[in-house]
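Deviations from the work plan: none for this task. Representative record:
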Amino acid sequence: MPAKRVEIKASGALKQVMALHFEEIRQAAEERKGKVAWCTSVGPAELLHAFGFRVYFPENHGAILGTSRSSADFIPAATAAGYSPEICSYLTSDIGGYLKKETPLKKLYGFKGIPRPDVLVYNTNQCRDVQDWFSFYQREFNVPLMGISTPHPVPALEERHIKGVESQIAALVEPLEKVVGTKLDMAQLRKAVALSRECTDLWNEVLRTGTAVPSPLTFFDACIHMGPAVVMRGRPEAVDYYKLLLDEMKARVKDGVAAVEGEKLRLYWDGMPVWGRLRDLSEQFSSLRVCLVVSTYCNSWIFDELDPSRPFYSMAKAYTKLFINRTEQVKQEYIRRLVRDFKADGIIFHDSKTCPNNANSRYGMPQRLSKEGIPTLVINGDLCDLRFYSDVQVRTSIEAFAEQLLEK
Amino acid sequence: MTEYFLGIDIGSWSTKAVLVDGHKRVVGKCLRRSGVELRKVAEECRDEALRQAGATIKDLKRTVATGFGRDAVSADGVRTEISCHARGAFHYFPKEITVIDIGGQDNKVIRVSPHGKHISFKMNRKCAAGTGAFLEEVALKMDIPLKDFTDLARKSTKKLPIGAFCTVFTSTEVLALIRKGEKKEDIVRGLLASVAARVMEMEPITGTVVLTGGVIAYNPGLRDIFEQDYGLKVEIPPDPQFCGALGAALYASEG
């Protein structure tokens, strides 16, 4: 029997913030009430907000396609068009949906189709796939494509890394000015960076409430509530939202409210979510009285280097320093620190077939951490393509891992 | 009145029941193809195991279900097949062991502590290569009964590497070997060796190994491969196919 789950009261406000985000984009794209920039999720969103763009994130769309399980209908169309089923399934889901002229945004937010971009801006700090992804749309829409090629993977962050990326971000200004027809207002950029920093600090505080025993939120909650940190950072609405959520989580900690009733085990989730199985997995963990208290993924939208007094430099630093862009050694130290901070009993590594850059189990890390006394489990799956996912195998693996840890 | 404890292992290929008494002695067991009516088959297995013990359902104190269909049948408790194979193997070999369970659709490598707790495990990737399903498929294509594999493999004089990751590709490899005129004894040994190879790449394996599951029950020649090719000390419990069900029965007896 799944344990009783306590609803997060801020969910209503979350829906409103996300609806506002999409409505602004819809109006800009379909009613020409502004310009639309497509941006990678850890790209220079602040710069685009400063220009007044409505910023659309195809990765967020990928997650929606995964969650709605429409990826299965769309990936084959992208495969037929020459996009391998073994590359990023956000990309193949999204391009497949475009080719079939379908998107859940129609039903969810009243779109006629995906929003037409005026410009496409990427950052390769996560992977090369984003560049190829945006290149497809550059050919389709014949709009400017520009981006940042971040050095990867970065060991200790050095000035030369930051300076190089800083100059690339600065180089985006002139072509973006041409797209919008106005000069960059530095005050607007500082404001966006300040709001982004505030948003990210609040999101960090929300996640850190998971260090409490019992934890007031789970990885599954965080996957849903991270939405504004991804798509609205740089906007005041995101800041207001996380203040509300943080208050609720703090109250839960104070009152000892557990996200998973009768929490027996606390685990770390590494790698991408399995978007099409969030509910199933959430219910399974809940029934096992296991709370996923921390994840690499949800912590990836914490940019504590953002500094409005040095917007270009600090954006470069923040977007180069992030976990996914780092060496194996840096990642291992990061995970070890979070395991300790969140008092996790073990780690589940999701080896996502089509997202190798966000799968940290392929170079021996689980084995190395196990030797240090941190129990680990690797499950095979994917972020969107459920053909790479076996419900029975994953279910059994998770249950057996819980049995193993509880028998100790 | 004697009390009995039942373990039911609903596997992808077969359902196994083991009945133990209060002294953990096996007093009844039954194996049937799982088919599609999991609950019905499980009940038939239970009834047969009870019949062998001269007992009735009223004598049954507790039942634990395991295997992929564990949630589809009625039981007092459920445990994963990983814990159950570890528990069943430890019953016969109460020391630090590595259990290798080669089943119909997946393989598991389970490390068991000297105290009988499973301390880590690995399952094969989502792929049939190296499992019972793989051997069945290739046996069918080669038109050689699976039960003959061990005798044939023991006549082999040449080690043939067969290494594809997937069942379809392996079948292609086998066809190429047949065309080259390789002897079927050597091809069959190569196939069994490929099963062992898939297992050995799951985890570094040392020490005493206990082989369990249906594949070793029907292909005892696999033991030779693990011993000859990898120098492992291999133990096989009585009725290796029933090891998971035994573990479930032991868990049932331990409350």
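The mean pLDDT of chain A is 96.
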